[in-house]
Amino acid sequence: MVVGVLALQGDFAEHVSMLGRLGVTAREVRVPRDLKGVDRLILPGGESTTFGKVAVASGMMAPLIAFAGAGRPMWGTCAGLIFMAKDVGRDQPGLGLMDVTVRRNAFGRQVDSFTQDLKILGLRAPFKGVFIRAPLIERAGKGVKVLSKLEDGTIVAARQGLFLGTSFHPELTDDPRMHALFLSL
Amino acid sequence: MAKKTVGANGANGSNGSHGKQVGTYELKKGLAQMLKGGVIMDVINPEQAKIAEAAGACSVMALERVPADIRRDGGVARMSDPGMIQKIMKDTTIPVMAKCRIGHYVEAKVLEAIGIDYIDESEVLTPADEENHVDKRGFKVPFVCGARNLGEALRRISEGAAVVRSKGEAGTGDVVEAVRHARKILGDIRRLKTMRREEMFTYAKEIQAPFALVEETADLGRLPVVLFAAGGIATPADAALMMEIGVDGVFVGSGIFKSGDPARRAKAIVEATTHFRDYKIIAEVSKDLGEPMVGISVSTLDAAQKMAGRGW
Fold first, then answer.
1. Percent helix, strand, coil in chain B (nearest 5)?
2. For an engineered disulfide with B153, which of A69, A125, B164, B227 has Cβ 3.0 to 4.6 Å away?
3. What's the pTM value of the predicted model, to 2 decimals?
4. Smallest Cβ distance to B31: which of A57, A108, A132?
5. Interface predicted TM-score (ipTM) over 0.95
6. Where are the alpha helices (DSSP H) in chain B?
7. What's the whole-number average pLDDT of chain B?
8. Distance from CA of A118 to the nearest CA of B (A)
9. Mind telling me the catalytic residues of B?
10. In a 10 Å sphere around its CB, with 0-12 CB exposed, 13-18 middle and 19+ buried, how is residue B4 labelled?
């Protein structure tokens, strides 16, 4: 199995390194031809506006949508989740794959970034959520399963079929369980 | 000693705590990891910030004058007007950075108070303290600092910096110093990796860096924080060169808004940074960019005109 990590900008190297720890072949994806032979794809953290601009300029939008349409799993962390969402409440390029409404920088600025242990459906023990200028999922559409919420009910992880979205960064922890969960989809 | 310092920064606070934590070193380093592979652009007003964001910048540096103008105007360069910085923060959705003078604790506290995302304790401004840098460990806001070699980089990290950048020679449009500093930092690390443990103690003394951070760098095979290039980057090829040398991303100061067609050049530099080994793409984005910023060759500057020597 080859797992691609979108490498237009952001913390793709951290995902690649976590996949390496799990013994999985990872490949950085920057241009459409890099998607050949990739079985599933991770969209990393970073700046979603940068992803959009560079993806459009690199002719990556249609190939990414086609990749997902062909029934291959895709997981977005933070900016990656924003990039996958149908609605981000403002006009910026996105893949429009997951039926969720996401609010960017929902928790505030960098000084408001936080870590918090989370209960996640499918994981037995709590998982450390690293939230950095994080987005939240305001609305989850039909067919979207909520996997994790903060105590106040804020949705921070969800799944729709083969699409996974988390507003936190499992790639910044030492804990490979979310990556393992994605590989099991 | 430095181990304790890292602990005080919260870098090791990853296990065992269940409640909400803010302002930890882990979070400060984490935001920097989100900037990787990206371009941080100097802007002097909300209009420029919009152009930068639209071009794909991953962050902007808000300041009253870009380094080329600071160089031209002379005099004392200080922290920018907080009101002007706030206007830029209000209008952008990407992280906003601002500069304080080296050693100017209060300017840094003011920037933290307005909720800035990152503070650059920068040699581009006139230093406020010619011996000490700010103790950055107690801040909730992460800091970026310039360095010319591994010793300087590790001294800044021991003070709490969450990103290191090359100093380069800001405001010149001459990339030579950024290349020199990035190569020196990365080359020092490569040599460190070949040393035996007992040699590292002497090396730590030589480069005036805490031993624990020297050892950590040797074990990681890289700096414990993200390394960016800065100072004199003016073209898409300059940005790609820095990525090829091994940095994680680039700052572009005067190079964009002192050029003929900022929007286009900004976008081109962003694309060249992502595709830094794809020379056809770099060729394509480098076409018809208009006039680059007028450069000053660093070799023609007197020692007194160089900014990179500031910081200790």
1. 45, 10, 40
2. B164
3. 0.93
4. A132
5. no
6. 2-8, 25-35, 46-55, 67-73, 82-91, 105-113, 150-158, 176-193, 197-206, 211-220, 236-245, 254-257, 262-274, 279-285
7. 92
8. 9
9. 99
10. exposed
